Amino acid sequence: MADIHPVGTHRKIGSLLVHPLALGGNVFGWTADEKQSFAVLDAYAEAGGNFIDTADVYSAWVPGNEGGESETIIGNWLAARGNRDEIVVATKVGNGVPTYRGLAKNVIRADVEASLRRLRTDCIDLYYTHVDDESVPVEEIITTLNELVEEGKVREIGASNITADRLDKSLTYSDAAGLAKYVAIQPHYSLVSRDTYEGELAKVSAAHGLAAIPYFALASGFLTGKYRPGTKVDSARAGSAAVHLESERGLRVLTALDEVAAAHDAELATVALAWLAAQPTVATPLASARTVDQLPPLLAVADLKLTEAELARLTEASA
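Above: the chain's sequence. Below: its structure in token form.
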């Protein structure tokens, strides 16, 4: 069972000990080139961060990219800094370019080798199924992932973008067969996207002791507070973030974040992440930084503890 209780300032996810902020690598090779990415990674590590999240598909959506650019940059950084043993690396399978799409055994086996090469390592610390493939029985998926664990190519396994039913079946099969079991789930979850995790998916996660590492934790930047009515933000994610300005909930959440942030002299992003970190099953939120200047408010989540009244205020505003 995953233990998400704090160990000092860190959290346990299966056998892994991780920083309270997981650093997203989706921007590496997209809005941050290798030099910028190295600067962000250096600053994160210097601040005590050790949990880096990426995927085989990052960032295939960029013209000229093939996917794997983020893994390559992270692998180059690990090799250049000689700090592989100090960093917990998470990557994913199943949502890649056509060659590596789906979760059939041959796809997983080929994709893990490609990720290992790009990351320049012999073992992935946390390996997620990125998008569930319902055409493949959970028994085949779990058995294949278990082989990777037994071979030492993967330490722990997790799931993302999966239904509660398929997750429960996967976990139940692992228990019954005595095979490797998901210890983590990476759901879409934030103050403006609660029903994407809360409910049956969260119940299954809690029942099996999974640690949640939510993605889109800052709603593509909306929860940083830089998107306001009448403002224009030059960002690759502006469209995804600004949509929340059109909803009453989005505006309510901004108002509540402003109030709580002012009480702590904190950034809105820090408060949004602190609310998330306080939710049941959540071990550490996931957020990315394109520049070093964007990191401090994210890292500050490790030191911000909201009161019960503040948590309730944010929960009510985001209902």
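Residues 248-264 form the longest helix (17 residues).
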